[in-house]
Write a structure and sequence with these properties.
The protein contains 25 helices and 14 strands. With about 775 residues, the protein is α/β, with parallel strands linked by helices. The strands form five sheets. The protein has a six-stranded mixed β-sheet with strand order 4-9-10-3-13-14, sandwiched between helices. The protein has a two-stranded antiparallel ribbon with strand order 1-2. Helix 10 runs antiparallel to helix 11 (about 375-395) and helix 15 crosses helix 16 (about 540-555). The longest helix is centred in the N-terminal third of the chain and has 34 residues, at about 75-110.
Amino acid sequence: MLSLDLSEQEYELFNVEEKSHLELKNKNFIFGKNGAGKSTLCKMIEKQFTDEFDVRLFTGFENVVVDTKLNAVVLGEENIDAKKNLQALDRKLYDLISEKKNLVNQIKSLDWKDEYKEEGLQKHPLYKSKEELSNLYSNKESEINTFYTDKARELREFNSPQITKTSYNRNDFIKDISRRKILDDKEIEDLKNTLSEIQKSKIIEKAEDKKFDFTTLIDNVKRILEHEVAVVTVIEELKDNPARKQFAQTGLKIHKAGEKCSFCGNEITEDRIKKLETLVSMPEIQRIQTGINENIQIVDNIRKEVNKIEELDKERFYIMLHKEIDEVNTDIRLYKEKCNQYLVKLKDALNKRLSSIFNTILNIDVDIEFPEDFTSIEERIKNIIKKHNELDANIEHRRIEAQKKIRLHFVALKLNEKENYKKDWRGYEIEFHELERLENDRLKIQEKIVNSIIKLEGSKDKLEENTVLYLDSEIKKTNEEKEAVLKETKSTYKFVQIINNKLKKAGKYNLELALNKDEDGIEHYLVKDNNEKVRSIDKLSTGEKNIIAFLYFLESLSDVEKQNDKNKIIVFDDPMNSNDDTMQYLIITEMQKLYTDKYKDKFKSQKDYFICLTHNAHFYLNIQPHGNFKDKKLINGNLVEISKYDKNNFYRLENGKFKLISSQNEDFNTHYELLWIELHSLYESDLLNSMLNSMRRIIETYIKFNKINLENFYKDKEEHKKLFDVNSHSIDDHSMETIGKDKDTLIAMFKEVFKTNNAIEHFRTYWK
């Protein structure tokens, strides 16, 4: 015997003060109305005894899953759990796939293609902004490209001078923009001259020595001019007077002794002549005179060489050197002038000393105007010649460069054009800046789009929710979970064959299960009628689903895969939930076979436990062992009668209390009440035939207890008597005629027979 601890109830449903434990025998029948706590009791049995026993609990068609999508039912705890799990996983997959599709559609709306419109998608606002900017950019780009083309054509057609190649185009103009440069008029003129000038000849530099030693010359001249003639004989009147000495020297040249002096008219004596001749040394005077004459010749020679210096002929040189040549020629002229002026002064000083040999010349004015060295001018001339020759050697390159510079000048001018190009043209710089702004804005939008797509796609390195990669990962995990669930499923076909046979034997030819597998491989069963036509699964009655669940539960009790060494506790929680009398009969019959050891592979009454809980009075009365027979058993030497109330436990659950029914007498009073309770239950289930059967049994009990004649009870109610008698059948009778009345009409007729027997209060007492 088992003892269930009622105090372990989760909620205060059962009264544990009077009875804290519920004793359970191998067979137990418990009656309780809905809400009395039957389901709670089942859960407590399962919780308290699962470790020690193999607890099997039947709760109706909860272990049958109806799949309206497949129009089929699923059987078996494993398959039902798998189906439920798979349905949950499929819902999860659907949500994940839907969420992923939403993200993918967002990505598509950001990275738009025209075919996406056929999918019912719309462009993302960011993409629309990008598209709008792209259109503005394209229009502006086209406008600027037209400008490039127009200006390239204008430059190509310019021929004064020709500044472009004949194939000069838009791309060439674009390349020139970065190199553009405004030139002044002089630069333009020079470049034009370079383009128009004729090629010159190479100039060979003359090897001439134009170095003049003015330092030595001036030193020699100074020495001669400053040299004082030495006096041999002192003549008092000529002493310290160079002019007089010169006058006397001149007189010696033109006079002889005996002649009269040209100055004074006196006769010149021989003695005077001799005296004057000894005044100076004649060889010294001659030497001085020779030196003066030689230096005069040197001065003349230098002047001749200086005057031979020629200016550069500009016509022999390229125009771009003319300015420099003019400057050099000017310096040459100045140099020659300075040299001549300087040399003339030297020559004049020498002649002056020559004419006055006794007069020394000190501090002549030549130091201030000392000529520059001609070497620097020579270097400049050499440099000009070198430049000329280089220009001559590179004249084609120079022309190309000149053409290029002029072209770049005109490119700059073209870029500065505004409305003189066309109306509303704000100038190239502004228009190009606007193009760059549009491109920058477009790139920013594109960057936002790319970042949005990257965010939506996610990263493999760090999976984040609401990303495609995260959802892919979750979808993969969910599919793997589905595979794991599918491995736990099992075949139920062998049990279904037994179920089909039992249904046919019970007369249920319109309820046959036909195997069918879904896309996951889980067994489903289509329901066929007696014409092999598949029935709509949503048309199955509650009773039909219940009987399928019941029969499968019954067969699963012998499932080898579920067998273990534990004894069973088989609990039926309201197994009778059918609106079909045949189903009621089949369930009762199968349960009675079970607890009477007809199915030894499912239940053994000596060690297993059978517990049936029901709210259905009719079912309660019929599921228990029938009759009131008693067995006689020798106990302690005494022969004792043992009834079904001794062998089994019968409880009535009311107001949280378990009332043990221990005898027929206790059950008898209860029996009549249960007939009324049963009638209520059948009324609620709309079981018309069973209602008539219960009504007949109530009437039989009533008239027997009150000793009323059957004919007198019905009096003139022949229709009532026929309805309650003829159309009432025992539980073993499966035939049924058409009643033609609804349940409320039946109750009204039932009430009427009690009223005609002055027992309306009795009816009201039991029909609550």
